[in-house]
Amino acid sequence: MSNCLFCKIRDGQIPAKVIYQDETCLAFEDINPQAPTHVLFIPRKHIPTVNDLTAEDEATVGHLFTAAAKVARERAHDENGYRVVMNTNAHAGQTVFHIHLHLLAGRHLTWPPG
Ligand code: 5GP
Ligand code: ZN
Question: Which domains does the chain have, with CATH numbers?
Answer without folding.
Answer: 5-105 (3.30.428.10)
